[in-house]
Amino acid sequence: MDVHDPQDIARAQNELLREALGRRPPPPADENDAGENHSLAPYARTEPRRRAIALEAARVTSSDVVYDLGSGDGAVLIDAAERYGCACVGLELDASLVKTSEEEAKRRGVDDLVAVRQCDLTRVRAETLARGIEDLPPPTVAYAWLTGGGLSRFSSKLREAWEVGDFRIVTCVDSLDACVDFERDGAFAEHIDRGWEVHRGKEAAFGVFVVPPKSVSLEKWAREERAC
Ligand SMILES: C[S@@+](CC[C@H](N)C(=O)[O-])C[C@H]1O[C@@H](n2cnc3c(N)ncnc32)[C@H](O)[C@@H]1O
């Protein structure tokens, strides 16, 4: 073993852990294979102040199409539609939350801007996500507040979609370059490099992380922030 290879050390560490825990089976190799567990996160709203910071950090404008990946009760979508007048699309596993979102969007008078689809993100194809779900326009902003484990499991599909499409990503609490699935990667999982380059601006202090669109470098994104 090369003692200087951090991935080797991480793997060996997890091997020791598995031994200590009674040799649990190694995680499935295919990150897109959701197995029996299709839930990437339980339902909870993003705290409203963090939500506002996240939408601002993503530099949302009226011409954007904001996708909320796991949209819960639609609070992010409704907030974005009210504040910025942009089109919003929610993708949500739980049909009752889809219904709640639609009713609330209607009650708040933004149902012309907000569309929500019942959908399992672990099943949707990356290309479909990038090009737009069904008849809906493609995302220019993808918002994701999932657990670290959920984000980690969804990371490779999101990456594929990000490479095909043209959108920036804003995540809350966990960042794409450091999220870890402790179930899959081991309880002392160390950093797993999936190639994401994440902007850590002033919003990072509030647990908000942005990945610029693939056509914009981190440096350019940061320069634009300073200019604002
Ligand atoms: C932490 S909540 C975030 C809700 C909302 N985005 C917000 O920030 O207020 C995560 C949401 O993802 C949904 N979710 C979990 N797994 C999913 C999947 N495989 N496909 C679609 N939605 C999923 C959950 O039902 C839940 O509503």
UniProtKB/TrEMBL annotation:
Keyword Cell membrane applies: no
CDD domains per UniProt: AdoMet_MTases
Keyword terms: Methyltransferase, S-adenosyl-L-methionine, Transferase
Pfam families: DOT1 (PF08123)
Annotated stretches, region: Disordered: 21-45
Protein name: FAM173 family
One cellular component (GO) term of this entry: mitochondrion
Family affiliation: Belongs to the ANT/ATPSC lysine N-methyltransferase family.
A single GO molecular function term of this UniProt record: histone H3K79 methyltransferase activity
